[in-house]
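Hi V.,

You were right to ask for the full record rather than a summary. Here it is.
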Amino acid sequence: MISFFKKLFTQKKEVSQDTNLIDILKDDHKRLIGIYSKINKNIQKNDFVNTQKLVGEFISEYNKHILLEDTKLYIELKEKYKEHQSILNTIKNIEKDMNGITKVINSFEKKYINNINNSNKEEFIKNLIEIGEILTQRIELEEERLYSLL
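Predicted structure:
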């Protein structure tokens, strides 16, 4: 069973019934990374107005992405592996981990959506870097391992 599980997580992505879903999710990742980069550039230039606008855009795109994962990806994966308890548990753990990331993103939003200025710029940058690290790790996990299960 363990070798079966390892094989599933290390195999190359095969064409699935819903490759379009994977393409959409990967496009979401590219969009999120692009917005994140713009936020970083704008905060470095002390452009707080555009930074705040971009934070709102980032949160909106993130929430759309999570909604798609919750209503499509995880449902399909759980259905596909309902007879493979160890894989199903892994999928559920990955989903649970995403809920933790969402809490971090929501906290970031509440803290900064209407409150980015010179007095909290350094703290904002520190939090932005943390968000970037979390998202980078998550995107790698999803694209390299999770999507191949679909």
